[in-house]
Amino acid sequence: MDISDNRKINSPLTLQNRDKPHHCSQCGKGLSSSSNLGHHMKTHTGERPYQCSLCEKSFLHKYELKNHLRIHTGEKPFKCIQCDKAFSQNYELKRHTREHTGEYPYHCPQCSQGFIFKSSLISHTRTHTGEKPFVCSQCGKGFSSSSNLGHHNITHTGHKPYQCSHCDKAYLHNYELKNHLSKHTGEKPYQCNQCVKAFSTENRFKIHLRKH
């Protein structure tokens, strides 16, 4: 065996393929075991076996159901060390913490848009490539992420699981309910660290940040 062959065997790509030998036939992603591949395939089919007993929302993974139940119980175990805010999900705390710092570490190489999470960047890059590997089994519509497919599946049922406690309005998505609740409370949780302005929705906050 010559040196070039040895380099190929020990290259990062070869080692990665060796560590993740089970590949998805639909998107090419490599997984470390056949069971992990089985779980991954459900993201393409839209299958969500874990059903909430308090609403009709269902999830791909058990831990997602556990996290979701905190919405019903009101439990908020994740607390910000810089202010008094508490959150039901760890990713919400991470997102909030980066609002204090203004940190958006993941940037799209094509349009320079910044993201808090790497997964958000991966989904975003598919808007440039047009890739939609997650397909609805009921209507055939394709989506760039498994979460978008999950939200879409609810549209077939007509169910709106997020109910406002102040009025009769109900919403398909949790973020829609949060945005709506700010109208009742007047809360503006998205504070710009470069000026004194605050916003009730994340979308308006992001638009404002681009002005700076």
Automatic annotation (TrEMBL):
It is found in: Nucleus. Pfam families: zf-C2H2, zf-H2C2_2. Residues 1-22 are annotated as: Disordered. One of its GO terms (cellular component) is nucleus. The keyword Ion transport does not apply. Residues 22-49, 50-77, 78-105, 106-133, 134-161, 162-189, 190-212 form the C2H2-type domain. One of its GO terms (molecular function) is zinc ion binding. Coiled coil: none annotated. SMART domains: ZnF_C2H2. Keywords: DNA-binding, Metal-binding, Nucleus, Repeat, Transcription, Transcription regulation, Zinc, Zinc-finger. PANTHER family: AZ2-RELATED, ZINC FINGER PROTEIN 142. Belongs to the krueppel C2H2-type zinc-finger protein family. This is C2H2-type domain-containing protein. It comes from Meganyctiphanes norvegica (Northern krill).
